[in-house]
Amino acid sequence: MRPGTRGADAILRLLGRDWAGLAIALLPAAAGAWCVTLGTGWRVLGGVLCALALTLGLGSLRHLVQVARVRMRYPPPGRMVDVGGYRMHVLAEGDAGPRPTVVWMPGGHAGGYAMYRLHALARERTRSVLVDRPGSGWSDPGPFPRTTAAEAVELLTVLERAGETGPYVFVGHSFGGLLMANAARRRPDLTAGLVLLDPTPPDVVAFGPSLATLRHAARDQTALALRHLFGLHPLVPRGAAHVPEDPARVLAVIETRTKANCAAASILRELSPDGITRDGWQTVVHDGELGSLPLLLVAPRDLTGGDRIFDAVGDPAENARVRHFFLTVRERFLAASSASRRVYTPEGTGHDFPDRVPEFVVEVVGSLLDGHGRGAPDPF
User: Fold this and answer.
1) Using an 8 Å Cβ cutoff, are 133 and 151 in contact?
2) Which residue from 231, 210, 201 is spatially nearest to 66, judged by alpha carbons?
3) What is the pTM of this model?
4) Could you state, in order of their start, the residue ranges of all structural domains in the chain?
5) pLDDT (tens digit, 9 = 90+) per residue, 213-271?
6) What's the CATH code, domain 79-216+265-370?
């Protein structure tokens, strides 16, 4: 690990503790008190530093009130499972019967609850599992740095320790697709199939145009952690929820805890040229590496809503090349297995299609479940 990476992860490890704001507030408080002792000329600066410390301290206390209310109002809906000194949250429901168990993983570094609508549909036909990666959702912070390779091992470990036996159909969206492909590569004996929902192609990071969304992802998550740490978020009202709430809203509230932003900031460093060079051997699933494992690549036919990508490039003459690149580079996932298939999403859908058309996604996954044990599926 590079020295700079160690330092960055040490900072993220600190910021991921919800009490860290109070510790940080002590620094300007101590400096302000020291300035006051130096005499009249320093007292103004000392007063400013003390005022800053008070502001930071009050913001941190507001955040700690938020943490306490979140714990009371939104207890984990599933089980907290120890994976070796820290716990991961697992929500497993439904009866698998003769079918494989479906395990879902959302994009970015969001908690598994982001795919609750899909889970709720799937549990009616088989066993369905949502997992919060360390730091996300209800899971404890895990070791730093966060990497896709480490999280693939943690996923397999928590499924075993939760008593799930497989075989599994691993389903991952966007950055979560990389994680699920890694889990399938490590334990093909436990994998009945792989469904990649518009997965993040490592080639986009290594060879694509420089995009601010990827380039600043880790920095933005760190900034969001600092905002949350000092109480710059809506405060959860007192009392318990009496009616079912939107899963996306619940997860957004849960992840105002800074561990979520810090874990995301750490792992999203993979999505940079330096990061993919450093971690690519463990992150990328190469051509043929999945043998004849059934694999479905599900993605929009076109870059619906992708104009923002082209604007980021800044050169209209390059738009056609960029469009071609983004549409073709994800097809590399098909080469990972000799039993891969391409499925297009409904017309007009974009990268967020799992939220827009959950019934379609569950039907696609169901086609693979139905094909288990009788060869590769032939969906849609």
Assistant:
1) yes
2) 231
3) 0.92
4) 3-73, 79-216+265-370
5) 777 889 999 999 999 999 999 888 776 565 568 899 999 999 999 999 999 999 999 88
6) 3.40.50.1820
